# Entry
Amino acid sequence: MLSLHQNKKISSPVITTLLVGLLSTLAFGVTPAQRGLEIAIEVDNRDNGFNDNTSTLEMVLGNKYGESTTRKMRTKTLEQNDDGDKSQIIFDNPRDVKGTSFLSFTHKKGSDDQWLYLPGLKRVKRISSSNKSGPFMGSEFAFEDISSQEVEKYTYRYLKDEKLDGRDTYVIERDPVDPKSGYTKQNVWIDKERYIALKIDFYDRKSSLLKTLTIGEYNQYLDKFWRANKWEMVNHQTGKTTLLSYSNWNFRTGLKDKNFTKNSLKRSR
# Structure
């Protein structure tokens, strides 16, 4: 058993972290890993049953000099009962990306299937699993960031309780199972009341802080499902940012599997 008095070099923050972990284990009768998994499962369960949704999306790409580029898109998502979600993003403008369409089949286990239709080449390009850590359309979001975040894609560990912008949150660490992920770990702040993510820190393959995603302006739909209108990703290593602004959410619109095929990418308007 570790004695906090055996090593004079142990700092107060380390002692506090150890005590929080110990108290959490005693309070819940579970390990930090079990508690982290329980929280992740509850987040997932609370979003089950939305069936499908659509929205409009504006993406603002910013560089460290304050210059920005704006893109406008539409999104649609289809929930799967026995696997991850299917989703599509269609670019409407500016002209250089108009007609570009991205299709993702998220899987609970194994690599996701993702394709990108490039109208200039008139062909569908498959995104290989080794490229999932690459930037999505020049943004600070990686291809793996824009898939549905299935519980099975990570292992978990409860870290602590913490206040964030006046809200009580759980802070959990989730480590990607996929060895080809661009991240070693992600720390996620989960709203205790609504079980929604408010902030995510992403650590690169060298375990250095790479990016922070702040998620806000949530609204509730159908008396159950929370959707955020603002997603801001800040890259701490490059100074670049990407702001996603969602609007016009609609649920249970009647989307089917046939609306999410490689051929549908070419027909998207």
In short: Residues 35 and 158 are 6 Å apart (CA to CA). Residues 1-10 have pLDDT under 50 and may be disordered. The longest strand covers residues 209-221. The first helix runs from residue 12 to 28.
